[in-house]
Design a protein that fits this description.
alpha/beta, 8-stranded parallel barrel, 5-stranded antiparallel β-sheet, 18 helices, 34% helix, globular
């Protein structure tokens, strides 16, 4: 009875959101038959941690067979730190990363996975982010180092901070202090610098400080590396650094595998902390933004006047462009050249945007927080916009930590929250490899549950896996049917960047606030995110609908947007005048983005914004209080009028 009821409910949900035939053209009867026994590619996968990696071929085969028995459809190999010292007596020996023995383990695992019908994905490295001993300091992750040095009363010179390996002095400024802050009109660049000493101008009155700006390195090391993969994280803004990494790591891992390649190579968390600079950033900034950033460097660390936010915006936008062009795009090309796919967690630091997912084959998220801007919804939105059927998520990370506390019900609850956000491929976090002879309950990863046969409830794992397989399969049928598109104000987010604080998705989360997404969901609607570049790449306005890829949205929300490109706002006006529901929350846009925008540019935005959101019968709607008004607007007349036939589930 329970099984029949579950099938009935899920089929009803499918029919409600996407009536008719599925994407594959199946009839409802065929779909129901497939639902009983879905394709293997709908099965959950596991992140398979190879500790050391102290692996042996017989034990690798044994664990793959157990995965198969548990209903797991594949895995992603990720070599990480050792959990035991080498010991001849116990037979434990860590294979040095990229050694011939470790490559043979990969070859064997790929062959056996194919024999068993398991999907094989491969982390392109060890731990995260990309890096290791092959990364010289000159290609290590870059950061802008800022040092403040107090200037003594009457002093004519100030000694520069020490400049280390991989660093370069960019500029020195002198500034007068006003209490704990800086007087913006007092900032002056010091050009007299020789032998590590900056020579100050005459006549300095009052307390002053010297600001030193140094192109530096963050010093970050690869997190959780395997034996032999320790070293600097690479500079993700430097194409030469990526080429060097792919030559020494990517080619070494992939080419010995022969004609059979991984289903996908994986780029794990972009956690390149404080990475906000690269060696040629000043030159690239000049080419892209049309002016020299050097005289304005103090704006990245202090309020220097009305143009501070515009300068920070241009710097942040440049960082995102460099990351896309010098890391993601060439990594994607390398993957295609090597006859595999690129699966990437495309959020974090460096300042990666939602539209950066254009350069991925498979977008992956993480996090089950479905009533806020999450990396999971970020990834599924990108998949919908770029027409990709599958969105994966890193699932069950830290679930009821420490290990073994998570139950099958906990797994189901979190997985369901991922499904609610559009995910249809679960990557379990995870499956720890355990060497032969290790005492029960075996090895385990610190940030995850243990979903292997060591778990006391393993006996029910096939049933849990089957439920997740069926829902994943059903979530891949038809087309996405979200009604609302929420605009991500990247321009406002870049304008809030400061030195070392360049985490785009986190700043966007702050800008969206805590009320917007619950208001949409509580109104009975689902949504996708989009940004300006995604709109340019895959968007158009068509008959009162905003079209992004294969999706048509009848409602668009601008969440407290201050700056917006004129082209975007003009197209949104067309959308609203064609009958679409355009809502601005808390405020309407008032400025054009960027330092070189003129007063005339700002006035165009303001005039257009007033035409859309003000007057006796404006085509747009201004929601000044999201907490009290948004749910009324979504449940009430605005969206309902536009979507009179929409079925809310």
């Amino acid at each position: 009875m329970t099984k029949k009821l579950t099938v009935s409910i899920l089929m009803t949900l499918y029919l409600a959101v996407s009536p008719g035939q599925s994407a594959g053209g199946q009839t409802i009867d065929e779909l129901q038959r497939l639902f009983q026994n879905p394709p293997d590619d709908s099965r959950i996968m596991m992140r398979w941690w190879w500790f050391g990696p102290a692996v042996s071929l017989p034990q690798l085969e044994r664990e793959m067979r157990i995965m198969k028995e548990g209903g797991i459809g594949g895995f992603e190999v990720q070599p990480v730190y050792p959990l035991a010292l080498d010991d001849d007596a116990s037979g434990i020996k860590s294979l040095r990363f990229l050694s011939d023995e470790s490559i043979e383990a990969l070859r064997f695992t790929l062959r056996k996975a194919r024999d068993l019908g398991l999907r094989f994905d491969l982390t392109l490295g060890s731990g995260w982010p990309y890096g290791g001993p092959y990364v010289p300091v000159g290609q290590a992750a870059g950061g802008l180092r800022f040092e403040r040095v107090k200037v003594g009363q009457g002093s004519r010179r100030v000694k520069a901070p020490g400049i280390g390996a991989g660093e370069k002095l960019l500029a020195v400024f002198i500034a007068r202090l006003q209490g704990q802050s800086v007087a913006p009109d007092s900032l002056k660049e010091i050009t007299g610098f020789k032998d590590g000493v900056a020579w100050l101008p005459d006549g300095l009155a009052g307390p002053h400080e010297a600001f030193f700006f140094i192109a530096s390195r963050t010093g970050q090391q690869v997190k959780r590396p395997a034996v032999g993969s320790e070293g600097f994280v690479m500079d993700h803004f430097d194409r030469a650094a990526l080429d060097n990494y792919l030559k020494n790591v990517g080619d070494r891992m992939i080419r010995p595998l022969g004609s059979h390649r991984p289903h996908a190579v994986f780029c794990d968390s972009l956690e390149v902390y404080n990475s906000d600079w690269t060696g040629d950033l000043l030159e690239e900034f000049q080419k892209r933004r049309g002016y020299d950033l050097k005289p304005y460097l103090p704006a990245l660390v202090a309020d220097t006047g009305p143009k501070t936010s515009a300068i920070r915006h241009d710097w942040g936008k440049t960082l995102t462009e460099l990351f896309n062009e010098r890391f993601l795009a060439p990594l994607h090309e390398w993957s295609k050249k090597n006859r595999t796919r690129l699966r990437v967690q495309c959020y974090g630091v460096p300042a990666v945007a939602l539209s950066s997912n254009k350069h991925a084959d498979l977008s992956e998220g993480e996090g089950h927080q479905w009533r806020q801007l999450s990396a999971t919804r970020w990834a599924s939105s990108a998949s919908h916009i770029y027409g990709r059927q599958v969105t994966s998520s890193e699932t069950w990370t830290w679930l009821h930590s420490p290990s073994f506390r998570a139950t099958p019900l906990d797994m189901k609850v979190e997985a369901d929250r991922h499904f609610l956000q559009g995910v249809n491929q679960l990557i379990g976090h995870g499956w720890p490899y355990t060497a032969e002879g290790v005492e029960y309950p075996g090895w385990r990863f610190y940030a995850a549950g243990v979903f292997n046969e060591k778990n006391p409830w393993w006996i029910v794992m096939p049933d849990v896996s089957e439920y997740l397989r069926r829902v994943s399969f059903l979530m891949r049928q038809g087309q996405p049917a979200n009604d609302v598109a929420i605009y991500l104000p990247n321009d406002d987010a870049w304008a809030r960047f400061t030195n070392t604080r360049v985490h785009l998705i986190e700043v966007l989360r702050e800008l969206l606030g805590q009320s917007l997404i619950p208001g949409v969901l509580d109104g009975g609607y689902n949504f996708d995110f989009f940004d300006d570049d995604a709109f340019k790449q895959a968007g158009r306005v068509e008959g009162g609908a905003l079209v992004l890829g294969p999706n048509k949205y009848k409602a668009v929300i601008l969440p407290s947007v201050e700056c917006i490109p004129l082209d975007t706002l003009q197209r949104l006006e067309e959308f609203a005048r064609g009958g679409g529901a355009l809502l601005a929350t808390r405020r309407a846009p008032v400025e054009a983005p960027g330092f070189l925008s003129t007063e005339a540019d700002h006035q165009k935005i303001l005039d257009l914004s007033r035409r859309i959101f003000e007057g006796p019968a404006p085509p747009g709607h201004l929601v000044t209080d999201e907490t009290t008004q948004l749910s009324k607007m979504t449940r009430g007349h605005v969206i309902i009028q536009v979507l009179p036939h929409t079925k809310r589930v």
